[in-house]
Amino acid sequence: MKLRVLFQTRPDYLKNIAGDSIQVIKTKEYLEKLGAEVTISASPTNLSHYDIIHLFNTTRVKETHNFFKNAKKQNKPVVVSTIYWDFSEFCRCPDSPEGLYNNWVNSQAMRKAIFRGANLLLPNSRAEAELIKSQTPGAAPCHVVPNGADQIFALGDPDEFYRLHGFRDFILCVARICPRKNQLGLAEALKGTGLVLVLAGPVNDREYAARCRSAYPGVLMLNQVEHRQLPGLYAAAMAHVLPSWFETPGLASLEAGLAGCRIVTTDRGTAGEYFGHLATYCDPGDTMSIRDAVIRALNLPDKQQNSLKYHISNNYLWQNAAMETLRGYETVLSVTPKFSID
Description:
CATH architecture of the largest domain: 3-Layer(aba) Sandwich
Low-confidence stretches: 335-342
Largest sheet: 6 strands, parallel
InterPro entries: Glyco_trans_1
Protein name: Glycosyl transferase group 1
Keywords: Transferase
Organism: Desulfocucumis palustris
Radius of gyration: 20 Å
Shape: globular
GO biological process, one term: lipopolysaccharide biosynthetic process
Strand order of the largest sheet: 8-7-6-9-10-11
Helix content: 40-55%
Number of strands: 11
Number of helices: 15
Order of helices and strands: EHEEHEHHHEHHEHEHEHEHEHEHHH
């Protein structure tokens, strides 16, 4: 008998693609390869058909809290991919959306209810687990499930991008164009370097995107990149830079590293736990720190890129994430699995 799992996530997870969307889609894909039966729902529903309920994302927490209450009401075991970091510092930065801090503080009670009431939390790192425990006494047990990337990113062809745009060897940032991802800080940091900058991702904030264009004339913005184009895009870049106000650890960094890019990433969040000395780190609030990190990354020997690619391939693929997720389910169900594993 197959394990029947219900994933519940925000209703716009496909329309507004972000890291949590990819985590939902890929975890489902690889759990099914392990023999589980996985359904995705974006609204509270009758749960009688399912053995375990898996919720995603406690940053945008309102929908998750509704799913959580519904599951508890129906006496179903709940696991949560928390996808959590503390927003407080970002809320204080100059480009933070108005009212964000109040919204964050006012929604903390819902997060704490989920953290305490779930059967198991599935943070993406030890640092995330420790943060939850420190901020929420009495939180449920944690089982770390690292984020992943697809092996296809190791097979990207840089000539695909060159044929479309006529250049290669640029600085790349793959992320939603918005203040938290800090593309404006990156644009300002690269002034005077002569480096070509490519920002790839949907525009969440049009005014912010316009400021990025003004800060770095000549920047190429690719706002509708298809997923199948990403391996070639990463492969054509010299370095991928994610100077966000925090990352956990940033799926784009995993994908870019697997594609052979040098990685520059924020020192806020959990990237250091994933990449160690194989990435270069920057302070998102300091443009000179971002600039210096990019220059240092470009001067790294090729063998470090190869080591990073090997490290990700051996530790952070989606099949690894699916196996750890399955182990978490087994812990909650506390029985020898009665479902098939292919």
